[in-house]
Design goal:
14 helices; 11% strand; 7 strands; alpha/beta; single chain; 5-stranded mixed sheet; two-stranded antiparallel sheet; disordered N terminus
Length: 296
């Protein structure tokens, strides 16, 4: 019961509803019992390649390893048995890495039955509830739960114990330009800033607002006021970014698209916003390469 209390609301709900008739072959030995905490050799445990988080802070892992040397592992890892006395991590990879660093030979694990989909779902939900994930990582986790597990935002809200609007706000972040997402991950802007930028439909205007926020070191409140000015100006003369700023933004977009297709791309845009994208090629072979990139 103590272990369950250490888990987040969404993950507890998820674990309580996992199908006990999972298709994964399970070979329970006398040393391992499903749904109970057991000690397992670290040599028998391996990471989940579908783990939503791929980058770990080595300094934090080192700090956790020092803590484990002193106090041991307070919260057991959650794993599933995949046969041949091997166990795959569902949640707790950071604790696992720290345990290896601390020189532990065995770690406490909580063994669950889970098929591949259930495994993915548990891993994503567990990550969403981590406080050290950046907003983009959380947004990607929500999107994967929707795409790969088939949940609507309403169902996700119920699964993870969040408001539907919260999930919607995160998922909208994935539609922001890469530069904005990168700044959000680097914490040079906040989730509040990103929400304000996401409230702008026009890509060029989004980039202009993003640059203004960074250049003027705007607070979220100031960014909201700036956006309100944009919206109010629609009834008057629209507030547009400068021609130079537009040119710079288009140049960046052309370079990105050229790198993606492998051929020179030109974006031709009129002042009204109307325009076209031109991808230049010299023969059918190059055209097919461009089409292959689109198919990918």
């Amino acid at each position: 019961m103590k272990q369950k209390n250490e888990l987040g609301k969404g993950l507890r709900a998820l674990l309580s509803t996992i199908n006990s008739d999972a298709t994964v072959p399970v070979d329970i030995t006398e040393n391992t019992k499903v749904n109970k905490v057991s000690l397992i050799s670290v040599d028998k445990i391996y990471a989940n390649k579908q783990q939503p988080r791929h980058v770990f802070d080595e300094e934090l892992i080192q700090e956790l390893a020092e803590s484990i040397k002193t106090y041991g592992i307070i919260q057991p890892l959650t794993v599933r048995q995949t046969g041949d006395d091997r166990f795959q991590i569902i949640s707790g990879e950071r604790r696992f890495k720290a345990s290896q660093l601390a020189g532990l030979r065995e770690v406490p694990v909580y063994i669950r039955h889970a098929n591949d989909n259930e495994m993915l779902e548990m891993a994503l939900v567990e990550n969403i509830q981590r406080e050290d994930l950046n907003p983009v990582e959380i947004a990607i986790s929500y999107q994967r739960l929707s795409d790969e597990c088939g949940y609507t935002q309403e169902q996700l809200a119920e699964r993870v114990g969040k408001k539907r609007s919260t999930i919607s706000n995160y998922v909208r972040l994935l539609k922001l330009p890469v530069e904005v997402q990168t700044a959000l991950k680097a914490k040079t802007i906040t989730m509040g800033h990103a929400r304000v930028i996401a409230g702008v439909d026009d890509l060029l205007m989004q980039m202009q607002l993003f640059k203004d926020i960074q250049k003027s070191e705007m607070s979220v409140r100031d960014a909201e006021k700036t956006l309100q000015n944009y919206q109010r100006s629609k009834a008057r003369k629209p507030v547009k970014p400068s021609a130079r700023s537009i040119d710079q933004t288009i140049e960046v977009l052309e370079k990105k698209m050229s790198m993606f297709f492998g051929y020179k791309v030109q974006i031709q845009r009129k002042e009204s916003g109307e325009g076209q994208i031109v991808i230049k090629f010299k023969n059918d072979h190059q055209l097919n390469e461009i089409l292959d990139r689109i198919d990918e």
